[in-house]
Amino acid sequence: MLSTVRIVVSFLFMLHGVAALFGVLGGGFGRRGAAEPLGQWPSWWAGLIQLVGGGLILLGLFTRPAAIVCSGTMAYAYFSVHQPRAPLPIQNAGELAALYSWFFLLIAVLGAGPYAVDTLRHRLRRAPPRTRMLTRGRVPRPRAPGVPRPGAATRER
C-alpha cells in the first residue's frame, strides 16, 4: 500500500513540475499556459525539484534524500508564499503545499515501500557476492541435507 500511495502522489507532484517547466497542463504557477522563465527564483527551481524529485520518488530511486528535498521545498513554498496571506491552509490556498510537505516527510521516514528500485538495490546488496554472480540477483532456495543439487554427479559405492 505504501508503494501505491508513493507512486500516485509522486506522479501528481511531478505533473506540477512538468506544468511549470514546459507550460503544459495549465502552465506554471499562475501563468495560465506559459512556462516559468528559465532560472527564475523560486518558481523555475521549484518546478525542477518537482519534476526530478517527483520522478525519483516515483521510481523509488534515492527515495529518502529526494523526499527530504521535496518536503523542504513544499514547506518553503507554504511559509513564503501561502502563510503570509492567512494563518490556515484553507484560507491561504496552501493545502497542496502542506499536504505534499507532510507526505514527503512521511516517505523520508518510512522509506519507499516494497516496490521500489531502492528496495531491489538493498536486496541485491545483502545477498552474498557468489550468489549475486550465479543467480543474477535471484536467491536460491535452501535444500534439505542429503539432497543433491540438480545436475550434481552422484558417487556410486
Task: Describe the protein's architecture and organization.
With 157 residues, the chain is an all-alpha fold. 61% of the residues lie in helices and 0% in strands. It is built from 7 helices and no strands. Helix 1 (2-22) runs antiparallel to helix 2 (43-59), helix 2 (43-59) runs antiparallel to helix 3 (63-82) and helix 3 runs antiparallel to helix 5. It is elongated and about 80 Å long.
The end-to-end distance, rounded to whole angstroms, is 56 Å
What is the helix content?
A: 55-70%
The rounded Rg comes to: 23 Å
Number of helices: 7
Q: What's the total count of β strands?
A: 0
β-strand amount: under 5%
What global shape is seen? elongated
Stretches where pLDDT is under 50 for at least 5 consecutive residues are: none
Order of helices and strands: HHHHHHH
Mean of residue pLDDT values = 85
Structural class designation = mainly alpha
Tell me about the largest β-sheet.
none
Observed structural traits:
157 residues; mainly alpha
